[in-house]
Amino acid sequence: MTHSSAPGKIILFGEHAVVYGRPALAVPVTQVHADVEVSEADRAGIWINAPDVNLHAELNTLPSDHPLASVIHNFLFLSRTSPSPAGRGRPEGSGEGQFPDLSINISSSIPVASGLGSGAAVTVALVRALSSFLSHPMSDEDVNAFAYEIEKLHHGTPSGIDNTVITYARPVYFVKGYPIETFKVGRPFTIVIGDTGISAPTKESVGDVRKLWEADQPGWEKVFDEIGEIANTARISIENGIVEVLGDLMNANHQLLQKMTVSALELDQLVDVARNSGALGAKMSGGGRGGNMIALVKPEMAETVSRALKEAGARHTIITQVS
Ligand code: PMV
What is the pTM of this model? Predict the structure, then answer.
């Protein structure tokens, strides 16, 4: 039996502008995670158990574009076309039918479609568990590239930030198309994540920003530049342990996201509640229109802000320390 776990993630700065080549910062959220166990099944086939989504099915009974099936099919295809010498009992070039009978258990505590990277975390945990059970070693780089391909199937034109931060499970400074840079946190800081409970497809908000940009490229390029500067300043501040300034940077970034029309009334309300209950600053996080917001807090204020967010209607809150 093999087991693999992957954390959630949250974008601190730079969402949306990252799609246009500006930097973004994202960090793992270890309080929530996706977990996958792979073992040999006692009956024929590849059996998937995912009780969180009420799924118990044999792989071939699922549509091939089913999110879990597509990860498994793609992995099996990859391991067939680039066989590793240690492959478990599987002749080179064999079909999917010759793989051992597998039982795959998938669980996740990451809320879905809310900007915490639930899809990418399941993909990363699943591919790592399969690669280890089937003795098909994959480097972090391989896992990341694989997870990016899967993200593309489901999200159109993702920047790749989700799969990157989740694969490496480290704070990441991400610029699309550039080598991954992890960065150090000079002094740990605490954020509270508040979930509006509204699930909003990232693809749509990304598409709407694209329409705005197409109508006025110079104008929006300026906005993206401002966001890029915020992300760069934030990285330097985090590395140097000057974390208090992150509050103002969050507020400034939120305002620019509002301008981009990707915030929502519920997000704006939670952002205001966080600021009014003692946070040092707050912003929406991720694709927007729903999903999560984040607030920078002094550790001793975390519970107060979390409670205020829940009272104001947040579906879940997570207090996490970035270190
Ligand atoms: O909603 P999330 O956390 O998956 O983030 C989307 C981030 C965007 O910048 C809006 C899109 C992207 O692909 O980077």
Answer: 0.89
